[in-house]
């Protein structure tokens, strides 16, 4: 939480309104808190009176909690005056990777919203948005589809885990209410808890974009102006002091709302080692600097250090979260190591060549991440059982493991069903502890600068219809259409199907396609990774996004090419890749293609898998 707790929910190109020079009483930063409360509640109530459905975007941090309490007050007043009000929706997001304390707290606060609405007979619905399989950050990271978001690499994680799930939820709400897309744009007003004074950059950006506390503004999503929604920032003009004072009003029973905010205060206190207590009373005044804590995703690399988590871990009662922090730090230590990256691009050039450069995480690193994640989950289940409680967190569900297996098949990363095999090993007692950081070792903080290098890749089999998305087993048995794949609105793993597979089919599937024979010997090369993907598609456990069949065909062609040339175990080694690809006589380099093999090999050896800081070598 903290200054950036109210995440940016919208990809906004422009606004059609600007803030006027003079604002009414209660909408100016210098106005009294009582005037601000009255004006803010009145502005929200005016939208309800106009028949608008209010959507409160709430993270249950200090700002959005205050905003929600004001919106509920507006509804209570309107219902008291008129006997009715349009349905209001409170939306929060669960990224599936939240700090467990914050996750449990948010669920508790959401339950309080539901209970308060029921007790007061208010038309309020509490909804929680979660990422689908396509947007599951950890699945995609371990599956080799993406790398972690870092401070200088944008916030794709926020888009995947928060923005897109919330947008899907809003569309679903409109459909449930019976509104067309066009009607929904003008029937809903979203409230967000951003404030001018959060930071200079935040204030400058809000004013430049015309965000207002008194009326909604049209937020345009495209250059044509066809995609838009109405958004209002009711506490934009509030100071941190104002926020703290309202929280104090609630804690001192001066205002009644859905929560007493005691858990909110405790969350901030815990995240700051007890140094930042929201302890505002009539005789006191809070510090204007705020607490600066953030209790977001426990895996977040978008910040250099997770100070809030580390502060919590200094208290023995939160030691159970230490494995999550160790997992995050392990990823951070290895993120820029070139021997932990896959050096093959995901696209084959028209002339059959491929680009060589460090891209996504390497197969071996992804397998390690899966092993550590599953070990952490298993240890937590055991610890929770000893305490007689439910597990306090879970990194990967059964459907997530299957999704990872499918992605590994798609990218040619592992033997068929390797993720399921690994999970089965953990279920049977095997553990992989995370290696401790070496205090005498430094780790790279950036990738070296590398010129694009092309190598011959596609052989004469590449592009043949039988080595792509075709299910050879279905073709041989003549029982199913070998090219048919189940599709839906998104790439997904059927949850019930995953449970049935794990309970009844896992042993048979591993015996038939898995990476290890009955006697324990490895089946290297016996089955291509695509066997795993075809198996799950054939069972109907996995469905593709409708319209992505062509892309699936292309990736299966590449996956099988990697398998045929035995490249899987050397995808992280440019020197070995050059040597291996050069051995294939049916692959010719592009006409005029130039690359300096010696420089590339020297770059590879400069790290030698020892994790030293990458040297800036231009190839």
Automatic annotation (TrEMBL):
<dbReference type="InterPro" id="IPR014729">
    <property type="entry name" value="Rossmann-like_a/b/a_fold"/>
</dbReference>
<dbReference type="GO" id="GO:0003824">
    <property type="term" value="F:catalytic activity"/>
</dbReference>
<feature type="domain" description="Phosphoadenosine phosphosulphate reductase">
    <location>
        <begin position="54"/>
        <end position="248"/>
    </location>
</feature>
<protein>
    <recommendedName>
        <fullName>Phosphoadenosine phosphosulphate reductase domain-containing protein</fullName>
    </recommendedName>
</protein>
<dbReference type="InterPro" id="IPR002500">
    <property type="entry name" value="PAPS_reduct_dom"/>
</dbReference>
<dbReference type="Pfam" id="PF01507">
    <property type="entry name" value="PAPS_reduct"/>
</dbReference>
């Amino acid at each position: 939480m903290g200054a950036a707790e109210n995440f940016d929910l919208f990809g906004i190109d422009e606004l059609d309104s600007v803030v006027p020079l003079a604002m009414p009483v209660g909408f100016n930063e210098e106005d009294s808190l009582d005037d601000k409360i009255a004006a803010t509640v009145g502005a929200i109530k005016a939208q309800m009176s106009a028949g608008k459905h209010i959507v409160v975007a709430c993270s249950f941090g200090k700002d959005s909690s205050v905003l929600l309490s004001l919106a509920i007050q507006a509804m209570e007043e309107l219902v008291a005056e008129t006997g009715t009000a349009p349905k209001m929706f409170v939306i929060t997001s669960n990224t599936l990777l939240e700090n467990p304390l914050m996750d449990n707290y948010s669920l508790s606060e959401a339950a309080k919203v539901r209970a308060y609405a029921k007790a007061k007979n208010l038309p309020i619905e509490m909804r929680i948005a979660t990422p689908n399989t396509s947007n599951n950050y950890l699945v995609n990271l371990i599956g080799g589809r993406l790398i972690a978001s870092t401070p200088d690499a944008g916030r794709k994680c926020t888009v995947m885990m928060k923005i897109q799930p919330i947008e899907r939820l809003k569309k679903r709400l409109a459909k449930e209410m019976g509104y067309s897309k066009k009607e929904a744009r003008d029937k809903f007003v979203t409230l967000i808890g951003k404030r001018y004074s959060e930071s200079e950059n935040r204030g400058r950006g809000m004013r430049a974009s015309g965000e207002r506390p008194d009326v909604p503004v049209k937020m345009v999503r495209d250059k044509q102006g066809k995609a838009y929604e109405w958004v209002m920032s009711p506490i934009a003009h509030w100071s941190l002091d104002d926020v703290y004072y309202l929280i104090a009003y609630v804690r001192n029973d001066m205002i009644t709302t859905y929560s007493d905010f005691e858990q909110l205060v405790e969350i901030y206190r815990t995240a700051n080692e007890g140094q930042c207590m929201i302890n505002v009373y009539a005789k006191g005044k809070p510090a204007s600097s705020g607490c600066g804590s953030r209790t977001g995703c426990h895996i977040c690399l978008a910040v250099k250090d997770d100070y809030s988590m580390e502060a919590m871990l200094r208290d023995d009662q939160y030691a159970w979260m230490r494995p999550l922090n160790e997992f995050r730090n392990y990823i951070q230590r290895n993120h820029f190591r070139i021997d932990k990256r896959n050096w093959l691009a995901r696209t084959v050039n028209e002339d059959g060549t491929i680009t060589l450069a460090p891209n996504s995480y390497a197969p071996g690193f992804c397998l390690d991440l899966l092993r550590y994640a599953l070990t952490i989950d298993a240890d937590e289940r055991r610890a929770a059982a000893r305490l007689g409680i439910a597990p306090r967190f879970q990194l990967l569900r059964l459907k997530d493991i299957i999704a990872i297996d499918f992605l590994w098949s798609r990218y040619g990363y592992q033997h068929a069903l390797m993720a399921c095999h690994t999970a089965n090993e953990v279920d049977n007692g095997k553990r992989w502890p995370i290696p401790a950081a070496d205090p005498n070792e430094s780790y790279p903080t950036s990738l070296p600068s590398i010129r694009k290098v092309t190598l011959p890749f596609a052989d004469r089999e590449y592009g043949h219809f039988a080595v792509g998305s075709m299910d050879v087993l279905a073709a041989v048995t003549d029982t199913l259409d070998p090219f048919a794949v189940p599709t839906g609105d998104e790439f997904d793993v059927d949850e019930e199907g995953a449970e049935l597979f794990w309970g009844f089919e896992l042993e048979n599937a591993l015996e038939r396609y898995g990476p290890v024979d009955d006697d324990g010997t490895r089946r290297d090369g016996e089955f291509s990774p695509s066997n795993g993907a075809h198996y799950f598609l054939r069972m109907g456990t996995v469905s593709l996004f409708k319209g992505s069949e062509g892309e699936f065909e292309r990736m299966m062609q590449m996956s099988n090419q990697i398998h045929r040339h035995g490249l899987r175990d050397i995808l992280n080694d440019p020197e070995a890749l050059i040597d291996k690809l050069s051995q294939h006589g049916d692959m010719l380099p592009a006409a005029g293609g130039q690359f300096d093999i010696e420089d590339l090999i020297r770059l590879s050896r400069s790290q030698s898998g020892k994790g030293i800081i990458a040297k800036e070598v231009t190839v």
